[in-house]
């Protein structure tokens, strides 16, 4: 099994799906000759040509809207949003159209479209190259939102997204692209969308999170192990629709729950996770549910110290777990 | 009266058929208003004043293979494209058997995969990029089709209109954008919507073919759309057409148009109503005889009566059906 980076897993999943199914096409800004501003589509233009790896005009609503049309014709488009921050012009196409086409046509039409978008901060991206946008779409039935944490999950979930007959938003943490490496089988495999994954078994405190913060939780768990605290980590993998059963099981397992997100706190995905636990696990909890998230300010500032203040830091994660263990 | 249809390749029977579809749409529309005012259906959105442009355009397309994305006023277009009067009534009564959405959507939000007619929503002009995507996919597969989409002049100010037009032109896609300019976006007139004389003037900004025509004349509509179809098949890319129409009814059954325009203005427009002027043309040429006209009216009336009766009695979808088709259902 090869050890590859998070972004190489994205590239590999697309390449394999394009080889497997000639209805898979890629559309977006700079995805062609440039291979994507992050190099996610590197080499695909050369291998599959400009008719399947399409450099579009700079217009996000058209990238998604034209993708929806092509999907209704029977293609499996992958629409790349260069940054999740720039998805907003496409929100009408995503929420009013992609999410509702199966429903409003009474199952006549469907939209097998994957929308890929890099999200997340800690890269000196300032307000508009750092945001986590998942909460905007996380109460829109008809959509699925996938946010993987490891190269293994990336490959399996991106392939599943491309093969899905419903629209999927696939969020990739841009800092994970080259930071996170892991073992990825050469074989073709998919992972089920909508299933959370236990990333570490533990008995004292449960951490539920997704994306890059899974790695903060894993690091904290390693440190705390030496201090006699056993941490259970559930990676949501899909943040909409949520894997309610896995969330309840993970919460009940330790009775002490820390929820982590890089997004601003109010109305975030972990707020919904907290509600699920509150509704289902009251008598199994041994401590109040704890949430660690970004502050409720509009977005992440650019200057180093300000960015640092905005982001949840690994020592805060560790301290929060310790507090819960000692509660 | 000069015969204008023979040079377009139409027989006398063809133009009678054309007229019949215009008349069916008008009579269906009139019936819907009666049903609404009688409290039998909650809402009407009308096609009156746009039938000629719609039927003429539809005649220029290939009903066997082209893809269409009609908007919510396209009753005449959709009737010609293959939807029956009964289905139209089921749609307006929002019954389970409505082939467009099974009663989920408001009336006039058409869609049918069988008819290669994209599902339509209420936020305007979202269908334009979809039509472009259809054309892009067809081009990739080497399918020789055109993708046809309609919208209003108010909608032509939306970002999706511009993004779709530009995309289609950059990629030289076989898309026909037809703006049905009825001069009103609810209450706001053309002078407050556009600073250029014609919606089709915008075509040059996208590097595409543009043309305006008399939306009361189905033959003019046919000729313009046929020209765009021929261009598309020759690989010359998209076209932006504009039908100059007039909305003869209020915006919907919930609107009072006398709060923003005068009866005199509407009465003047009625003199140019395509359903009436095309009938005059056919009468002058002796194609539409009094006998044929009475026969046509009676047959249409009977079909509408039967369709209304059927749709009124048809069941609604079951309440518990709202949970279905959020995602693909497997097993």
UniProtKB/TrEMBL annotation, chain A:
What's the top EC group for this one?
Answer: oxidoreductase
Entry EC number(s): 1.2.4.4
The record ties this protein, via SMART domains, to: Transket_pyr
**Transketolase-like pyrimidine-binding domain location, by residue?**
4-179
Q: Which organism is it from?
A: Sporolactobacillus spathodeae
Name listed for the protein in its UniProt record = 2-oxoisovalerate dehydrogenase E1 component beta subunit
**The organism sits in which domain of life?**
Bacteria
Q: Which PANTHER family match?
A: PYRUVATE DEHYDROGENASE E1 COMPONENT BETA SUBUNIT (PTHR43257), PYRUVATE DEHYDROGENASE E1 COMPONENT SUBUNIT BETA (PTHR43257:SF2)
CDD domains, sorted = TPP_PYR_E1-PDHc-beta_like
Enumerate the UniProt keywords alphabetically. Answer: Oxidoreductase, Thiamine pyrophosphate
Q: Which cofactor does it need?
A: thiamine diphosphate
Coiled coil feature spans: none
Q: Which Pfam families match?
A: Transket_pyr, Transketolase_C
TrEMBL record, chain B:
For whether the record's keyword set contains Oxidoreductase, the answer is yes
Alphabetized InterPro entries for the sequence: Alpha-ketoacid_DH_E1_comp, DH_E1, THDP-binding
Which keywords belong to this entry? Oxidoreductase, Thiamine pyrophosphate
Its Enzyme Commission number(s) read 1.2.4.4
Cofactor (UniProt): thiamine diphosphate
> Where is each Dehydrogenase E1 component domain found?
19-320
Question: Is Oxidoreductase included in the keywords of this UniProt record?
Answer: yes
GO molecular function (one): branched-chain 2-oxo acid dehydrogenase activity
* Catalytic activity from the UniProt record: N(6)-[(R)-lipoyl]-L-lysyl-[protein] + 3-methyl-2-oxobutanoate + H(+) = N(6)-[(R)-S(8)-2-methylpropanoyldihydrolipoyl]-L-lysyl-[protein] + CO2
Q: Pfam families, per this entry?
A: E1_dh
| Purpose of the protein | The branched-chain alpha-keto dehydrogenase complex catalyzes the overall conversion of alpha-keto acids to acyl-CoA and CO(2). It contains multiple copies of three enzymatic components: branched-chain alpha-keto acid decarboxylase (E1), lipoamide acyltransferase (E2) and lipoamide dehydrogenase (E3).
Family note:
Belongs to the BCKDHA family.
Protein name per Swiss-Prot or TrEMBL: 2-oxoisovalerate dehydrogenase subunit alpha
Biological source species: Sporolactobacillus spathodeae
